[in-house]
Design brief:
The chain is mainly α. The protein folds into two domains: 55 residues, Homeodomain-like (Arc Repressor Mutant, subunit A, Orthogonal Bundle), CATH 1.10.10.60; 138 residues, Tetracycline Repressor, domain 2. Helices cover 71% and strands 0% of the residues. α4 packs antiparallel against α5. The chain is elongated, with a radius of gyration of 19 Å.
């Protein structure tokens, strides 16, 4: 079964309220205690209304993660389109985007980090957004300042993506209350630079 596609403004608003309630419940309860009844109660809708749009708890979670990833992608696109950002500012924005989006929402963050085994489609979507972001960053840096940045070969872009995923995983899995996210963000920015800079600029 799939999520009912909302055609009218009221239906879209209902979907939004349900997803917001889902986030609130996730941030207050462990996943095993997360139920459709909790979501319905938090959203103010009846359980019957909830099931009109989502056939199961898993469908709500999948839709939530899809929406989160789409939002991250939209923000990344806005950074790439912003001509007022310097190359270094752009690198910083992209390096901090994914980590900061989920920093204060550990359970949502954990679902994304785990590849969201409930849906291969969502897992593929997460990978595609990360891959597109890495590619766009390499292309944008080269286009804006070819004297400083090089056209990164495809195999090195794949290596950069792998290092990006590893750095994000480090931040997502950190349990130490003294863990400094900013250190990981700087590390991620340096990863981008190490691949994009021309050798004479390293």
């Amino acid at each position: 079964m799939t999520v009912k596609d909302p055609k009218q403004a009221r239906s879209k608003a209902t979907i939004t309220f349900i997803l917001e309630a889902c986030q609130l419940v996730l941030n207050r309860a462990r996943l095993k205690r997360f139920t459709t009844n909790h979501i319905a109660e938090r959203s103010g809708y009846s359980i019957g209304t909830l099931y009109r749009y989502f056939p199961s708890k898993d469908a709500i979670l999948i839709k939530l993660v899809q929406t989160e990833i789409e939002n991250v992608d939209e923000r990344a696109q806005s950074f790439f389109a912003d001509q007022t950002l310097s190359c270094d500012e752009l690198i910083h924005k992209i390096a901090t985007l994914e980590i900061r989006t989920y920093q204060n929402r550990p359970l949502i963050r954990r679902n994304i980090q785990n590849g969201f085994v409930l849906s291969a489609k969502v897992n593929e979507m997460i990978h595609d957004v990360r891959w597109r972001t890495c590619n766009q960053l390499a292309d944008t840096l080269f286009e804006r300042d070819p004297a400083r940045f090089r056209d990164v070969p495809p195999i090195e872009r794949e290596q950069c993506l792998a290092m990006h995923i590893a750095a994000v995983r480090t931040a997502f899995e950190a349990k130490d209350p003294d863990f400094d996210v900013a250190v990981t963000e700087r590390h991620l920015a340096n990863i981008y630079l190490s691949f994009a800079l021309r050798q004479e600029n390293n």
